[in-house]
Write a structure and sequence with these properties.
It is a single chain. The chain is mainly alpha-helical and about 90 residues long. It has a domain of about 60 residues. About 90% of the residues lie in helices and about 0% in strands. The protein contains two helices and no strands. The longest helix is centred in the middle third of the chain and has 57 residues. The protein is rod-shaped, with a radius of gyration of 38 Å. The N and C termini lie far apart (about 120 Å).
């Protein structure tokens, strides 16, 4: 009877070993995923900082349209003045 009890417990031991291996593998995979997520978060912060700097550096480009409008107005006024003074086109 002692031999039968040992045979029955062998399945349990094998099950515990398999469960321990699976839990270890899952813990390793989750730690790898968390490490990669941390790296992605750090890189995302760097990218956001670079994009903010690029936005700050390109803000003057929004004033180009205002400058162009002013230049158009000056050219139109100069042309009107020229034609009013009898000049050519």
């Amino acid at each position: 009877m002692s031999l039968l009890a040992a045979v029955d417990l062998t399945g349990w031991y094998v099950g515990y070993v398999i469960a321990g291996v699976l839990i270890t593998v899952v813990v390793i995979l989750v730690s790898i995923i968390l490490g990669l997520a941390r790296r992605i978060g750090v890189q995302a912060d760097v990218v956001v900082g670079a994009l903010d700097q690029a936005r700050i550096n390109t803000l003057p480009l929004w004033d180009v349209d205002k400058v162009n409008g002013g230049v158009r107005s000056i050219i139109k006024s100069a042309q009107e003045a020229r034609s009013a003074l009898g000049g050519g086109q």
